[in-house]
Amino acid sequence: xxxxxxxxxxxxxxxxxxxxxxxxxxxxxxxxxxxxxxxxxxxxxxxxxxxxxxxxxxxxxxxxxxxxxxxxxxxxxxxxxxxxxxxxxxxxxxxxxxxxxxxxxxxxxxxxxxxxxxxxxxxxxxxxxxxxxxxxxxxxxxxxxxxxxxxxxxxxxxxxxxxxxxxxxxxxxxxxxxxxxxxxxxxxxxxxxxxxxxxxxxxxxxxxxxxxxxxxxxxxxxxxxxxxxxxxxxxxxxxxxxxxxxxxxxxxxxxxxxxxxxxxxxxxxxxxxxxxxxxxx
Length: 281
Description:
The chain has helices at residues 70-82, 104-119, 126-136, 140-145, 179-184, 210-216, 218-228, 249-256, and strands at residues 7-24, 30-50, 55-57, 87-93, 149-152, 157-160, 167-172, 234-235, 242-246, 264-269. By secondary structure, it is an alpha+beta fold. A hairpin with a 5-residue loop joins β1 and β2 (30-50). It is globular. It has one domain: Ribosomal Protein S5, domain 2, CATH 3.30.230.10.
């Protein structure tokens, strides 16, 4: 087996600036509207291409068996789809919280698709990669899409959006919110009226999942209550992370410095595009 050099690739997080649940399809998936904002907090994938066709995970991810690992599944899906005979050794440097609503696992999977598309010299177009991405999860296509976006459908119908520069205070309570349980809750409202993309403005909308998580996870409720004293704080996705948009880095760092000591978090800058945007056309 010939070993190539290890190369590293970023997998940035996202925030849902709002998240409306419009209804539910017959197959159980929920119809959504949201704005996805990429931020500069990220996991990192360290990959080494091999010529033996094997997909190997070199380090365990706590609580995630290899068969459920989205990175491994993404590599295998791409390999099967293209009949590629190359393989890859995978080491994931994980800093984004699991169950945090930041799209960490989805972003990892998308970065795997984008990186291997280049490393394996597949040259698949972005649209084809997005179709593959949807097989891995509803949030994976946004990271392959590679731009801030207005999202509809189950989150896969994407239109690019230009968003103003912003910084975000993000708090990450030490709980793992199970997305499926939140969407299955009888307390979840599913009848928000659809809007047009042109209606979006800073502070628009709300997160329909937030009241459910607020009631079920006291740590999330506490973090959200604390952050709301500084402005229009919200939960991202299905939680547990909550965030506040700030106009500049100084303001974000000032607020973050005041946070309760027992709650972890970070300050992040909004991105205009995914760092690997040019890995697919």
